[in-house]
Amino acid sequence: MTDSTDTGTAHLPGTGRVAGKVALVTGAARGQGKSHAIRLAEEGADIILFDLCRDIETNGYPLATPRDLEEAALEVEKTGRRAIAAEVDVRDRGALDTAIAAAVSEFGRLDVVVANAGICPLGDGPVEAFADAFDVDLVGATNTIHASLPHLTAGASIIATGSVAALLAAGSQGGPSGAGGAGYVLAKEMLTTYIHRIARVLAPKSIRANIIHPTNVNTPMLQSGPMYRQFRPDLADPGPDDVTAAFASLQSMPDVPWIEPADVSDTVVYLASSESRYITGLDLTIDAGATLGRGGR
């Protein structure tokens, strides 16, 4: 799941693992995206930060604000790296083409694409929630990648944010509720197949594409009323204290209700760096054992 309240501290000081690279991160104003942007900057990359910075009507929790995006860019700059921030809707391919081209013109290159922007509208919302979730989570990710392709060269890395929830739902173990939840699951399932296919297409050009599937991540998406009700449908108005045990029940490792954004960001840095130069088409779960027993695991 995507988005964050805390970037976490579970990483070592930067050692220049992506020094000299330029990385694009969508959904960068907060959550996992903000964490990824800062972590990549700590490791030497200049960062392009895109975010919608306004709410989507069918989504039952507030999204990031322009102030959030501004603060994320400032955090990147505090590392000593450069930042370009723009309010961009990943559903708008033309806007992405223009914004990416402008940023690449200023920075001179693009090496890493983190297609992270996402929403998860849950509960008894309108059928339009299906379309909104699908359009942001799948169309937005593919738009981001396709708009980036003209600027990528050998050694570039594409990293998409998937979802353990979608993997589990695909295995008939339940999934997010309502029309929006169905759109979310379908988008993440199709994004997984898409990454596998585009990895094959890009491999002869030495451009890599991988997808990360996190379990619950400690973000505003998780820490929200709709998500609390998803995990505790037996309560009319569950709060944070009501859901911790339910969150933890998803993971096989004990006492892990969620992971922190930094747990995912460290993997993003690895996939962005030359340490993973021969890794492509990979599904990487960061899930404390949530998917053990699925698909022969």
From TrEMBL:
Signal peptide: none
Keywords, comma-separated and alphabetical: NAD, Oxidoreductase
Top-level taxon of the source organism: Bacteria
Keyword Hydrolase tagged: no
Molecular function GO terms recorded: oxidoreductase activity, acting on NAD(P)H, oxygen as acceptor
Entry annotated with the keyword Ubl conjugation: no
InterPro entries in the cross-refs: NAD(P)-bd_dom_sf, SDR_fam, SDR_subfam_1
UniProt family annotation: Belongs to the short-chain dehydrogenases/reductases (SDR) family.
Protein name: Putative oxidoreductase
